[in-house]
């Protein structure tokens, strides 16, 4: 992390912690929305049941993405603690501060992660 200043590391830790809280909150809401749909078949029309099932499926997908991102954010905090945060997993170069600020869980520099969204 020598390519990052102490102030940058502090700022990135704050951003990581903020993102963890935000994603945890969102994941709780998604988990609630993804619970099984119980509809009174006689009182609800076929389209309403289909809409409810589709919404449940979308919520489950969102919940899974949030769990994955939460895992990535927590791993980034672990890397920060062990001193490997901000180093490209592919080439070992320092990951640019701007990239880390926008996507704090990034594991690659802009050159190695180009187009990979990592």
> Oligomeric form of this entry?
single chain
> What percentage of the residues does DSSP assign to strands (E)?
under 5%
- On the 0-100 scale, what is the average pLDDT? 84
Shape: elongated
Helix content: 55-70%
Order of helices and strands: HHH
Textual characterization of the structure:
This protein has 118 residues and is an all-alpha fold. It has a domain at 6-85. The chain has three helices and no strands. It has helices spanning 6-33, 46-82, 97-102. Helix 1 (6-33) packs antiparallel against helix 2 (46-82). The longest helix has 37 residues, at 46-82. It is elongated and about 60 Å long. The protein starts with 5 loop residues before the first helix and ends in a 16-residue tail after the last helix. The mean pLDDT is 84.
Essential attributes:
mainly alpha; about 120 residues
Quick synopsis:
This protein is mostly helical and 118 residues long. 60% of the residues lie in helices and 0% in strands.
């Amino acid at each position: 992390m020598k390519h990052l200043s102490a102030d940058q590391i502090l700022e990135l830790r704050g951003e990581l912690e903020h993102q963890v809280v935000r994603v945890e909150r969102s994941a709780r809401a998604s988990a609630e929305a993804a619970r099984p749909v119980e509809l009174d078949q006689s009182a609800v029309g076929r389209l309403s049941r289909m809409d409810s099932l589709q919404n449940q499926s979308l919520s489950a997908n969102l919940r899974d993405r949030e769990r994955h991102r939460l895992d990535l954010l927590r791993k980034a905090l672990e890397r920060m603690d062990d001193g490997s945060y901000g180093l490209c997993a592919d080439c070992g170069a320092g990951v640019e501060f701007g990239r880390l600020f926008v996507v704090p869980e990034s594991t690659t520099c802009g050159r190695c992660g180009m187009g990979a969204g990592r």
